[in-house]
Amino acid sequence: MKEKSPLLDKQVIIYLSILIIIAVLILISARHILFKPWTARHWAEPAVLGETVYLFGGINDRNATDPKDFLEKDILLLNLDESTLKRAGELPSRRYSVSAAELNGSIYVAGGYDLKSYLDEILVYDPAAQEIKLMGTMPEPRAFGALVEQQGRLFYLGGWNGKEIASTVFEIDPATGSVTEFASPVPPLQLFSSVSTGEKVYVIGGEGSDRKNSNVVYEIDLLKGKVLRKGELPAGVNRAAAAFMNGSIYVIASPMDAEVKEIYRIHCDEEELTVSIPGQFRDRGYDLSLAGYNNHLYLMGGGEERFGRQIRIRKIELATLRTESVLLKSFVWW
Questions:
Q1: Could you count the other beta carbons within 10 Å of the beta carbon of residue 272?
Q2: Nearest-CA neighbor of 155 among 133, 126, 131, 186?
Q3: Mean pLDDT along residues 1-20
Q4: Which of 9, 173, 214, 314 could be stapled to 299 by a disulfide with Cβ–Cβ 3.0 to 4.6 Å?
Q5: What is the DSSP string of 306-333?
């Protein structure tokens, strides 16, 4: 009988070792695909800090009915320079239609809806510690409105209070969480878009008490409680995404039944508020979020094309309106 060659045994061991190493590497890589957390969602509220976008809550795409499956409480951190996405905390409970505003390095989050009740909470999020805490409550719940910052002060405008579209503004003291209330300088609105330039606040479109979509753009000074200028969009919009960049506001309407999206540009640095339409593009998303950074717009919402598990990010170049999907580096072949 032939004896086994020691050399053959060594070769088998080497081959098996190589196969085991390859299998381990495949499993390590596959965890980013097979076990990647489900981050696909729409109606997530953005807050921008430099190259970082924080997304709060939202509605996922799982077609569920139970709030624990339908709504999200994650705080997602999207780094636009590195094209990376990770969890950076949790809201106290699952919810959507919260509103967020950044002030002095902290992010304030107010209101929302959890499918059972409208919320009156005022939260403050510390990005460095990735911690969120309750700092106060509003006199009544609000959702589908907007939290904005103007000259170092915080205001919550309009929205639904559980009974009607609100006609007042809450000013929130960021130090104590105390709230004062005054009449809104604009008509009662919900589902509108809002943008703050620091000096002024803009309210764009929305749904009024008559349930009709508004096409009006209001430039307001909340410190004085008055409207400064008005402009008009070509058509009424609600649930649109908006962002400020390079002296203009960009608005992308995202109705559920429209695949073609028009981009409106509101020229804030001219004598009058004028609106132009730089172009349009195809996108199947709705209830999207928008952020401006480094001469690009980032449109966020829905599920990415390959697996549908990750939130979809579209990058729009301002100069050409060329759009491309942002491929997040958490996937092995990206």
A1: 8
A2: 186
A3: 68
A4: 314
A5: TTS-SEEEEEEETTT--EEE---TTSTT
Distance CA 253, CA 239 (A): 7
Q: Is 164 helix (H, G, I), strand (E, B) or coil?
A: coil
Q: Quick: pLDDT tens for 159-174.
A: 999 999 999 999 999 9
Cα R_g (the chain), whole angstroms: 24
Inter-residue contact 165 to 190 (CB < 8 Å): yes
Say how far apart CA 269 and CA 198 lie, in whole Å: 14
226/247 Cα distance (integer angstroms): 21
Instruction: Please give the full DSSP string across 234-265, using - where no structure is assigned.
Output: SS--SS-EEEEETTEEEEE---TT-SEEEEEE
The CA angle 77-298-146, to the nearest 5 degrees, is: 75
Instruction: State how far the Cα of 87 lies from the Cα of 105, in Å rounded to an integer.
Output: 19
Question: Coil, strand or helix: which one is 27?
Answer: helix
Task: Look at the block and give the residue holding tokens 């907007």.
Answer: 146
In contact, 268 and 202? CB cutoff 8 Å: yes
Residue 60 has what pLDDT? 85
Q: What is the pTM of this model?
A: 0.88
Encoding tokens for residue 227?
A: 């409207």
Tokens of 121: 């909470």
pLDDT at res. 152: 95
